[in-house]
């Protein structure tokens, strides 16, 4: 029901999502109020729907971003260390950084260089975004997200923004104990969100949640096939 939450401004969109129960955490709402979606989804930013950002990628709908951030929230504290795989527009990377600042870090991973650049450019559009980049709270890197990002591991929370073929073991390895990963996984023609919890003693628990539609977590396009 994308239309129900549509607003004329970022604050209207976010407040409508909150009133309609699509955001159910005040902390996540405040973080999303601090990030203007127009900097990341320039066509129709204040509608609760996904939209294309080029290179076969989409910025997810804001209610999906809210759901992911809320799911990870117990592991998002000032100072927490987060991995955002398939960072695309950079929107969620910025929202997560609003929650873990100060002293936290969110690493956005993309396998297409123009999208690494896009995330960075979008964040440069606001003073808050520029500061988060300048002080190292947010970092965008080019890598294959299926392997995580070992250089800055381990992470309190891992968000995967594209549908994986499997629960990549390297990602689970790079979770702290305790830590949580939010990951869409392909299952036949369907995709489901899985939440992976690593307990303090290292025990791993996998929970299947609702069905979703994400773009796939894949090999990068071959040279010359990037649109
Ligand atoms: N969270 C982003 C989602 C972008 S769509 C947003 O809301 O803007 C999913 C992204 O995953 C795409 O940008 C795509 O380029 C990226 N992706 C797909 N496979 C990948 C891989 N193996 N490694 C890193 N990024 C990948």
Automatic annotation (TrEMBL):
Acetylation in keyword set: no
GO biological process per UniProt: methylation
Enzyme class: transferase
Reactions catalysed: [protein]-L-isoaspartate + S-adenosyl-L-methionine = [protein]-L-isoaspartate alpha-methyl ester + S-adenosyl-L-homocysteine
A molecular function GO annotation: protein-L-isoaspartate (D-aspartate) O-methyltransferase activity
A GO cellular component entry from the record: cytoplasm
Gene3D superfamilies hit by this protein: Vaccinia Virus protein VP39
Sorted UniProt keywords: Cytoplasm, Methyltransferase, S-adenosyl-L-methionine, Transferase
EC number: 2.1.1.77
Broad class of the protein's primary localization: cytoplasm
Localization terms from the record: Cytoplasm
Superkingdom assignment: Eukaryota
Family matches, as InterPro entries: PCMT, SAM-dependent_MTases_sf
Family indicated by similarity: Belongs to the methyltransferase superfamily. L-isoaspartyl/D-aspartyl protein methyltransferase family.
PANTHER family the UniProt entry points to: PROTEIN-L-ISOASPARTATE O-METHYLTRANSFERASE, PROTEIN-L-ISOASPARTATE(D-ASPARTATE) O-METHYLTRANSFERASE
Protein known as: Protein-L-isoaspartate O-methyltransferase
């Amino acid at each position: 029901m994308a239309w129900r939450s549509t607003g004329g401004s970022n604050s209207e969109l976010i407040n409508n999502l909150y009133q309609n129960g699509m955001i159910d955490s005040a902390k996540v709402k405040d973080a999303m109020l601090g990030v203007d979606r127009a900097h990341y989804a320039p066509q129709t930013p204040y509608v609760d729907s996904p939209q294309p950002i080029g290179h076969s990628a989409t910025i997810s709908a804001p209610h999906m971003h809210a759901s992911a951030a809320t799911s990870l929230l117990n592991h998002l504290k000032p100072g927490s260390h987060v991995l955002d795989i398939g960072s695309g527009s950079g929107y969620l990377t910025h929202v997560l950084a609003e929650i873990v600042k100060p002293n936290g870090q969110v690493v956005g991973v993309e396998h297409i260089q123009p999208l690494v650049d896009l995330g960075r450019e979008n964040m440069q559009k606001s003073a808050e975004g520029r500061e988060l980049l300048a002080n190292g709270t947010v970092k965008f890197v080019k890598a294959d997200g299926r392997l995580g990002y070992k250089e800055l591991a381990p992470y309190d929370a891992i968000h995967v923004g594209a549908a994986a073929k499997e629960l990549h073991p390297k990602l689970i390895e790079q979770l702290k104990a305790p830590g949580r990963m939010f990951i869409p996984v392909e299952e036949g023609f369907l995709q489901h969100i899985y939440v992976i919890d690593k307990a303090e003693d290292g025990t791993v628990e996998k929970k299947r949640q609702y069905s979703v539609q994400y773009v796939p977590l894949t090999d990068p396009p071959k040279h010359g096939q990037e649109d």
